[in-house]
Design brief:
- The complex is a heterotrimer of chains A (about 220), B (about 350) and C (about 800).
- Chain A has one domain: P-loop containing nucleotide triphosphate hydrolases (Rossmann fold), CATH 3.40.50.300.
- Helix content of chain A is about 35%, strand content about 30%.
- Chain A is built from seven helices and ten strands.
- In chain A, the strands form two sheets. Chain A has a six-stranded mixed sheet with strand order 6-7-8-3-9-10, with helices on both faces. Chain A has a four-stranded antiparallel sheet with strand order 2-1-4-5.
- Chain B has a single domain, classed as AttH-like domain (AttH-like fold).
- In chain B, strands 1, 2, 3, 4, 5, 6, 7, 8, 9, 10, 11, 12 and 13 form a 13-stranded antiparallel sheet that branches. In chain B, strands 14, 15, 16, 17, 18, 19, 20, 21, 22 and 23 form a ten-stranded antiparallel sheet that branches.
- In chain C, the strands form four sheets. Chain C has an eight-stranded mixed sheet. In chain C, strands 13, 14, 15, 16, 17, 18 and 19 form a seven-stranded mixed sheet that branches.
- Chain C is built from 26 helices and 21 strands.
- Chain C is α+β, with helices and mostly antiparallel strands and about 800 residues long.
- In chain C, α8 packs parallel to α12, α13 crosses α14 and α15 runs antiparallel to α25.
- Chain C is about 60% helix and about 10% strand.
- The chains are: A alpha/beta (about 220), B mainly beta (about 350), C alpha+beta (about 800).
- At the B-C interface, β4 of B face α3, α4 and α6 of C.
Chain lengths: ~220, ~350, ~800
């Protein structure tokens, strides 16, 4: 099993004491699977994604990737998981503003020491970014920026792609084309894709869907 | 001309509010002038140590053989820190000499300071001698004098002969200064013929002209509300005029004047009769100084404009002031001297 | 409404007390730096003046008599003959040196009170008032006099009126000597006709330390201005920051309908109040710093006189004024730009703080052009300019140009670094550092100026000290100097002294024109003293040997420069030609000088007989010899000069200044370090969007924190690398341009690599300290705060 989540609990400090966000979530994903995570605002879907991606630590419960509990890891080990196993695509601010598009795409792969220039070039071309390689993120449109983020994630060939409303800031046509590319390439690299969305239409394109309500799977 | 009292009072006070000890505004312990004025010139040309302030003040309008005009000043001030004289260094009498030569383009000034009691400076009445260092105003009597002074860039050596008698200001030499009754003893010798040599950086110049000597002593300063004064001595075609204007804080003026005929007869004029108004100003040492004036004494039909021979006649001494020769035009013509103080 | 607005503005500080703290501290430190430098400058000045007074009277020509006593009547005769002279009565009262002067005639600067300062009272003239330091008075027994403590008095000396001195010393109608004013009237009877029994003695050599210290003062003033510039940069940074931080509050207030005009007025008043408070704190702080640096005043002087001066430091009104002006003026300058921006800012402009002063490429290009222009201007002024104004203009152009060039140069360095980076982290590091540059550039400029000032001042002071030591060794080579009243006494003294000391070196001189320039001709005895101590700037082979053989002469730098004389050229002395074999530095001397050996001098000027002697002897024997000469020859203290003492005293004054400037340098660096801290703290909050993606992709927060520190070290090192040449250029400008323009002679410049290395270490230390806190903060940022960057709720 690529991903196994068991009894995951997460609270955040609130003004009136701890605020429960996730309240005992358990789930699994196989390699190459696609899964949509839907729910209302504040239902905890982004938090679940962050915990799965090793971006945050659960209060209790386990997050196992390839059989290892990343919840019990220290900061450095979790960073290594982010670098090597997972690719995260956020709704915005994915890119490093001080680096060019080319450097951004190569960034994660190079961090993990898995740079593959040919594959990167291929990705960029298929993403329609070949002309933009020496530009800086601020010079790109929102759709282009998200495509760079996807290219960067795929360039590192992660086993698990985590996407948090990756097309939330884009118009429908752009969102569809970005989505197409992401699915196509995920399939090609045999990566599993866990995507948070509140769009029924996008959720419908994934293999499976889970609905979160008030920190529990519905 | 006891407006000049301010000069001496300002002298020690100008740099600091405390001034010389005992030289505040009161005249405690010092003698004060009394009416009627009675002079005994066997002693009165000499110093009066029990009065606070006193001077021998000579100004001259001169011309060289080419007709170029010059001005000359020789002044010995005495100020007393206490109303007495003591021998030696503990003398409370302080002497200050100012000498200047004014040309149309330059103004040479120098100053000397000395303590009484040690012989460096002083005055004797008979025979008359006033001196500080090598500067000297002396003669067998007051009518026949020689005068010398020197500075780092000039010197002069002059002979003077009086062509008229002494002139007494105010009430026979008792010159009232304000409504408060402050007064001084004040007489002049405005009829000196003068001749001698000016030593200037460009060489010696032989000059002749007329000189005016003021003698004055008192103990009381002028009012607190007076900020400075403008003093004129004019030698005109038909007589001589001494007039001054005291500037007061509220913008008003107190004026006084003496008209002197060529025979030496005097008429004193009360406050308001003499009028002086600035016409043009010059930038002197960063100050705006009036160097052209309209001067009127309607009772005598005098309405003249006077202007400075050299507007930069600045006395850069311990107490700085403006003093220089003037030229008179208008209803009367002539020359004279102008002194202005209190322009900050 | 105003109240509500003010409440909203002020509540920001309440919620963010740290920001208020940094603002106040930034302003205070800048002010403290300035007022501290002013205080130390004033103190240095005061102690130089005291030193000059100690060496003082020797600056003037003096009239003396062979028996040490002059009738007062002679003084009056001299005055009445037109000589501007002033009496001196000197003696020992309870063993303390008492000097009586006449405040009405003495050359200015000698008496504690003069005719023109309004403090000349009848008590001073007739009552008996003594002026001295507290410690000098402590050695005095009870007398019927008033004592006035003044720190301006030279240590160990009581100054009083000449009459009081006569009374206390029982010397009625007698004077010890007479000072001759440097300016005299045009007409004057020759001295020989007035008082033929008295001798006119020329001013002493080597006592004109004033000229050297004038130059030193000028340079310290330049340092003061530099600290002012550093302060302004920091104030500018602090205020810009305060604006950035409150952008959201300002936007909200405006959105709620608060009038812009009133908002601006409100902020202006608020900043004015803050700057006044901070300025006042800063002045006090500066005073404390100066006071802390002061104790060694007493320490050094006590080393010479065995007593200490009261190290009083007065908080002068002008410090308050200039200190507050720095704070308020700097605030106004900085706030004007920000308020202008605010006035033009669209209402709905982003409330999110952006790195202020982020410049686009064009702005940077403009800045680079300006920097290059200013540096070229500095070069042109250095090469072709003349006059003091050009010197200071060059200084200003150099500093501003360099400060403006700094971000541009660093930008290029980082771009180069990025292009050569091997690893992805390195590439990101270079690129990210480059992007932070605009936000850090003010703080870095402050650091650059602070370090340049540091390098410049330590180079200047150290060069000065070396030059001065060399000069003193040269000029005051003998341990003890004796001045005879006349040639007869001199002859007797020579016979008396010869068996008592190692070597008596007669000093004889005359004046004549050399190549049309008034010059002094000296004829020193052939002795190792001169060979060892008089160092030549340029010389022919075996210069001293040939001069001692009568084959040539040596001249001073001033004469060589003005008359354009080179080694090997001939000069004519008393009608005879002498080739110039050596040129020596003669710092502070306004006129030309030439040296020939004693035998040649006696042949050329047989009528000159020496009346001064330098004595080579054991320093330990100086006090007993002083006493013996006082007894046997009735010599006054002013006729015997313990040059070892003068040298030690002068050097201690320099050393003290050196210590003090060293401490101030540390303060300057600390202030610059604080500026860096403030900038980094601000950037830290603004930079989360830049750091979050890097973190998300697999760099730990701890690693990001470490990178921040490495970045600070790198920035400090690069700034140091640029500050070194700038500081040296600064020192060079001060020594070789400003000094030449102001005083006509050039100070040699020495380099002190160890000092610079230490400085670089300090600077890096300051930068690391400044980066430590933000780095630690970053390493402990909660993941949820980083994640907020990506979420929509931001």
């Amino acid at each position: 099993m690529l991903l196994r989540v068991t009894d995951l609990v997460k609270t955040y400090p609130g003004p009136d004491g701890p605020l429960p966000i996730l309240n005992g979530i358990s789930m699994e994903m196989k390699a190459g699977a696609t899964l949509a995570l839907t729910g209302e605002s504040g239902s905890g879907k982004s938090t679940l994604l962050h915990l799965v991606g090793g971006l945050d630590q659960p209060d209790t419960g386990r997050v196992e990737i390839d059989g290892t509990d990343i919840g019990a890891m220290d900061d450095a080990a979790r960073a290594a998981v982010r670098r090597d196993k997972v690719g995260v695509i956020f709704q915005q601010f994915n890119l490093i503003p001080s680096l060019t598009v080319a450097s951004n795409i190569a960034f994660q792969a190079r961090l993990g020491g898995r740079e593959d220039k040919e594959w990167m070039g291929d990705l960029a071309a298929r993403m329609g970014l070949a002309e933009q390689m020496s530009k800086y993120p601020e010079q790109l449109s929102g759709g282009q920026q998200q495509r760079v983020a996807i290219a960067r994630t795929l360039a590192a060939r992660p086993a698990l792609i985590l996407a948090d409303e990756p097309t939330g800031n884009l118009d429908e046509a752009t969102a569809d084309s970005v989505m197409d590319l992401m699915l196509e390439l995920a399939a090609e690299t045999k990566a599993a894709l866990l995507m948070v969305t509140h769009s029924e239409r996008l959720a419908g394109r994934m293999g499976r869907r889970l609905h979160l309500r008030a920190g529990r799977l519905a | 001309m006891n407006v000049r009292a301010l000069l001496l009072l300002l002298w020690p006070c100008v740099a600091s509010a405390q001034g010389f000890a005992g030289l505040g505004t009161s005249s405690e312990g010092f003698a004060t002038p009394e009416r009627p004025a009675v002079f005994d010139f066997r002693v009165d040309h000499g110093p009066h140590p029990d009065y606070r302030i006193e001077w021998w003040y000579l100004t001259a309008n001169l011309q060289d053989d080419d007709g170029t005009r010059f001005g000359l000043q020789w002044t010995l001030f005495r100020t007393a820190l206490a109303p007495e004289e003591r021998e030696g260094w503990s003398s409370p009498q302080i002497w200050m000499g100012h000498a200047a030569v004014t040309t149309p383009t330059d103004h040479y000034v120098t100053e000397r300071l000395a303590r009484g009691g040690i012989g460096q400076a002083g005055v004797t009445a008979q025979p008359f001698e006033a001196w500080i260092d090598d500067w000297q105003l002396a003669g067998p009597d007051f009518n026949e004098l020689t005068m010398k002074a020197s500075g780092p860039d000039f010197a002069y050596d002059m002979d003077l002969i009086a062509l008229g008698d002494l002139v007494f200001h105010g009430d026979a030499g008792y010159s009232v200064k304000s409504a408060d009754g402050q007064a001084s003893y004040y007489y002049s010798q405005p009829f000196y013929a003068i001749e001698g040599t000016l030593t200037l950086p460009d060489g010696d110049v032989h000059v002749t002209g007329n000189a005016w000597l003021d003698r004055e002593w008192s103990s009381q300063p002028l009012s607190d509300n007076q900020t400075g004064w403008d003093w004129f001595s004019l030698s005109l075609d038909d007589g001589k005029l001494m007039g001054f204007r005291l500037r007061q804080e509220d913008g008003s003026h107190y004026t006084s004047a003496t008209w002197i005929t060529l025979d030496g007869e005097t008429t004193a004029y009360p406050d308001g009769a003499f009028q002086a108004a600035p016409i043009a100003f010059s930038d002197v040492e960063g100050r705006q100084i009036p160097t052209q004036w309209n001067v009127r004494l309607d009772a005598r039909g005098i309405d003249v404009d006077v202007y400075a021979l050299n507007p930069q006649s600045w006395m850069d001494t311990s107490v700085p002031y403006w003093e220089g020769p003037i030229i008179v035009e208008g209803s009367h013509t002539g020359v004279g001297y102008l002194e202005m103080t209190g322009y900050e | 409404m105003t109240k509500a607005g003010l409440q909203a503005l002020l509540s920001h500080w309440l919620r963010n007390p740290m920001q208020l703290f940094t603002l106040i501290v930034g302003l205070s430190l800048a002010t403290a730096l300035w007022s501290g430098v002013q205080a130390v400058n004033a103190e240095a000045r005061a102690s130089y003046d005291a030193a000059a007074r100690t060496l003082g009277e020797g600056r003037f020509a003096q009239i003396t008599s062979s028996d040490g006593s002059i009738p007062q009547a002679d003084y009056i005769r001299l005055r009445r003959a037109g000589w501007l002279v002033s009496p001196v009565v000197e003696g020992r009262l309870d063993g303390v040196r008492l000097i009586g002067l006449d405040p009405l005639t003495s050359p200015s600067g000698l008496t504690p009170t003069g005719a023109d300062d309004g403090n000349l009272t009848i008590d001073v003239l007739a009552g008996g008032v003594l002026f001295a330091t507290q410690d000098t008075f402590a050695r005095l027994e009870a007398h019927d006099v008033t004592r006035v403590v003044t720190p301006d008095a030279a240590p160990g000396i009581i100054i009083t009126d000449v009459g009081t001195a006569q009374r206390l010393l029982g010397l009625e109608n007698a004077l010890s000597r007479i000072l001759v004013s440097p300016t005299q009237p045009v007409l004057q009877t020759p001295l020989a006709e007035i008082t033929p029994h008295l001798t006119l003695r020329a001013p002493q050599d080597g006592s004109d330390v004033g000229r050297l210290t004038d130059s030193f003062h000028l340079n310290l003033t330049a340092f003061g201005l530099l600290s002012f510039a550093v302060g302004i940069f920091i104030v500018h940074g602090a205020i810009g920051l305060a604006f950035e931080q409150r952008r959201p509050v300002i936007r909200t207030l405006r959105a709620l309908g608060f009038p812009l005009r009133r908002l601006i007025a409100l902020i202006a008043v608020e900043l004015l109040a803050l700057s006044l408070i901070a300025g006042a704190i800063g002045v006090g702080l500066g005073y404390l710093v100066a006071a802390a640096l002061l104790p060694d005043v007493a320490a050094t002087i006590s080393g010479l006189y065995g007593e200490s001066v009261s190290g009083t430091l007065q908080l002068r009104p002008e410090w308050w004024l200039s200190g507050l002006m720095i704070a308020v003026g700097g605030t106004c300058m900085a706030a004007a730009a920000s308020l202008f921006q605010l006035a033009r800012m669209p209402l709905l402009a982003s409330a999110r703080p952006r790195a202020w002063a982020m410049q686009a490429g064009r702005g940077r290009l403009y800045q680079a052009g300006l920097a290059v222009g200013l540096l070229i201007l500095a070069g042109l002024l250095g090469a072709f300019g003349s006059g003091l104004a050009a010197g200071f203009g060059m200084l200003a152009a150099l500093l501003i140009g360099a400060a403006l060039a700094l971000p541009v140069v660093l930008d290029r360095v980082f771009a180069f670094g990025a292009s050569r980076a091997k690893s992805v982290t390195a590439e990101w590091f270079w690129a990210d550092t480059r992007q932070q540059l605009p936000g850090l550039s003010l703080a870095l400029m402050a650091l650059l100026l602070a370090m340049a000032a540091n390098v410049g001042v330590s180079t200047m002071v150290s060069s000065f000290r070396l030059t001065f030591t060399g000069f003193l060794d040269q000029r005051l080579a003998s341990e003890f100097y004796v001045y005879a009243d006349d040639a007869d006494q001199a002859a007797k003294l020579y016979t008396y002294l010869a068996p008592r000391v190692d070597k008596v070196l007669p000093i004889q001189s005359t004046t004549q024109n050399v190549r049309g320039l008034p010059s002094e001709i000296y004829g020193p005895t052939a002795h190792a003293t001169y060979r060892e101590n008089w160092l030549f700037l340029q010389s022919a082979n075996d210069a001293w040997a040939r001069i001692e053989a009568g084959e040539g002469a040596a001249i001073n730098e001033q004469l060589a420069r003005r008359a354009e004389i080179a080694i090997g050229d001939d000069i004519t002395l008393a009608g005879e030609p002498f080739p110039v074999l050596g040129i020596y530095g003669d710092y502070g001397n306004p006129i030309g000088q030439a040296i020939i050996t004693e035998i040649t001098f006696k042949r050329l000027f047989p009528e000159i007989r020496p009346s001064r002697f330098g004595l080579r002897m054991d320093v330990a024997d100086v006090p007993s010899l002083t006493e013996a000469l006082r007894e046997d020859f009735n010599l006054a203290d002013a006729q015997m000069v313990n040059q070892a003492g003068i040298k030690a005293f002068s050097l201690s004054v320099f050393d003290r200044t050196f210590t003090v400037t060293g401490a101030l340098n540390v303060l300057t660096l600390a202030v610059a370090g604080f500026a860096i801290l403030m900038s980094l703290l601000t950037l830290a909050t603004m930079r989360l969007p830049q750091l979050a993606p890097v973190w998300a992709q697999g760099l730990t927060r701890a690693r990001l924190g470490r990178i921040e520190i490495i970045r600070a070290v790198l920035l400090a090192l690069l700034t140091a690398a640029l500050a070194l040449p700038l500081g040296l250029a600064l020192a060079w400008t001060l020594l070789a341009v400003v000094n030449v323009e102001a005083f006509g002679w050039r100070l040699p410049m020495f380099l002190f690599p160890l000092d610079y290395l230490r400085l670089a270490v300090f600077a890096v230390g300051a930068a690391v300290l400044a980066a430590l806190w933000p780095a630690r903060k970053l390493a402990r940022t909660r993941p949820s705060d980083l994640l907020k960057v990506f979420s929509n709720e931001r």
